[in-house]
Amino acid sequence: MNCAAPTDFGLSWPDFCQRGGATDVHADGWGLVYYANNGLRQFHDVEAASTSPLAQFLGRQNIQASNVLAHIRYATSGQVDLANVHPFCREMWALNWSFCHNGQIPLFDDHPDTWLGNIPGDRMYYPVGTTDSEKAFCAILNSLRAEFTGSMPSLPVLHDRIRALCDEIIEYDPQGTILNFLLACGPHALWVYSYPGRRPGSSTWNGLHYTVRSRSTCLGDEDYAVTVSIPGNSTNGCDKSSFLHDFNNDETSRSRQICIVATTPLTNDEEWIELKPRELILFDEGLPHVSPRELFRVEMQGHGLDNNGKVLTKARLEEDMRQYEFHKEFYVGGGI
Q1: pLDDT tens for residues 131-169?
Q2: Would you say residue 98 lies in a domain?
Q3: Distance CA 138, CA 13 (A)
Q4: How far apart, in whole angstroms, are the C-alpha atoms of residue 278 and residue 203?
Q5: Cα-flanking dihedrals φ and ψ of residue 142, to 5°?
Q6: Residue, of 3 and 61, whose pLDDT is higher
Q7: 3-state SS, residue 18
Q8: Where in the numbering of this chain does the Glutamine amidotransferase type-2 domain appear (predicted)?
């Protein structure tokens, strides 16, 4: 979940938990992380979500955050172990990064020590568990850390670099690789990637879908429900059909935007957009961003990578804009 403002994220137990081992096969652990300013709260359990006391405890809490990752695990790589439960988290550039993955990555099953990219560097991140997912996460961070040593990458540069690393991962085995992931880097930015997309009739070959709304809502199906609400809004008497809205011309609604990303659509009466194969989207303030123009706008609104100068300097925006043939003057009058 990615939001324009801190939002109550009520995991409706037992509905959500039932999918973790009762009504579905995802019984091999679950995890939840959410950002609190620059900090990160993490909850992981190896027990099935449907029977987990910790999951029941969280269901009684009013969690409020702008960037949330949740994962229910079905073990395809690595044994059932707490160290193998997603989301995985690491510090890089004085920022908290978190990652969860759905699929299979043959490259890291066959060659767990693979170095991604062409720039050599010190291996700073190692997997604690045995999953291909965590190995891929560490490899991506190691490659980014090796490449950017003087200043932070701007969001368009980071977008292109992550996509190139994903292409390298897929190239090893395009037929066997399933690479659906969420990658958060701080309280605002959520990167979402999907390959190769959904295959009808398959329970393994899944893609990723997202929907954007601007009000409190209840969303659910027979075995899964999530309640999300912005403080001050009631979720009683939800009419899900009323949540489709033109966000572009309503600043009040824009301040209340909520984006939900899920493996499969969670509702039948609102628009869910499936990511295209190899598509990488940045979600910020509850909206999707893909083009350099959109990503530079997010940068200029103050939601790029920023560690207050603790490790690297800020991104060289003017230099990067020239590379993409943009200029700051392009955004004058756009509320920046």
Answers
A1: 999 999 999 999 999 999 999 999 999 999 999 999 999
A2: yes
A3: 32
A4: 20
A5: -60, -40
A6: 3
A7: helix
A8: 1-286
Q: What is the pLDDT of residues 54-71, one digit of tens each?
A: 877 887 788 888 999 988
Q: Residues 159, 299: contact at Cβ < 8 Å? A: no
Tokens 């123009």 belong to which residue?
Answer: 293
Domain tally, the chain:
1
CATH code for position 83: 3.60.20.10
Asked if 85 and 49 count as a contact pair (C-beta separation under 8 A), the reply is no
Decide if 94 is inside a domain: yes
Q: Is residue 238 one of the residues assigned to a domain?
A: no
Helices (H), 212-316: 251-254, 292-298
Q: One-letter amino acid identity for 24?
A: D
Residue 197 lies in a domain: yes
**Is the separation of the CB atoms in 108 and 136 below 8 Å?**
yes
State the average pLDDT over residues 301-327.
87
Domain with 191, as residue range(s), is 77-217+254-330
